[in-house]
Amino acid sequence: MKTFIFAAALAVLAVCVSTQTKAQSIEKGKLRFGIGADALLPVGNFSHSTNFGLGVTPRLQYGLSNKVALTFTSGIYHFFPKNMYAQTQTQLYAYKWDLDLIPVKVGFKAFVSSHIYIGGEAGMGFQVDNGGGDSEYLYSGTVGYANKKWDFGIRYENISGNGYRNGMIGLRVAYGFGL
Predict the structure, then answer these.
(1) Which of 64, 72, 139, 179 has the fewest CB atoms lying closer than 10 Å?
(2) Where are the chain's structural domains?
(3) Region of 44 on the Ramachandran plot (φ > 0 left; ψ -120 to 50 alpha; else beta)
(4) Which stretch is the leader sequence (predicted)?
């Protein structure tokens, strides 16, 4: 059943991508720059240590065609930690796991209609708190709406490295302009 649903979704996506609609926010050979604010909701095991996160994400976009663009995204994610408790033989103590991450991702944005797009990104996240130095792999899938000025997207992003894997749902609101 899962295979059938996946195949049906791919067929619908192929039909949408193959239609001859002209995207309103990408021009072939043109650069666009956008600055986004992100609301980040940890899911799975990540939600045990983190309440939520906020991010600022500048994005550079280059139009390969009127429907497809390459993207480069960076910025910073800050996650607000929960109080966690650990116990030794003699003492119970509270601690917080801080995470500030600088994402550096490349990806694509493909319009399936004049304003609706799908996208994907992959890259690295570099920790800047607790002495920094650690890096994680990042990859995400996005569905969104964009016009000449505004971009609204929702994504699932995975952060993995150092023996763990965490996920989050991200909502990005961005203002963009041509360069």
Answers:
(1) 179
(2) 2-178
(3) left
(4) 1-23
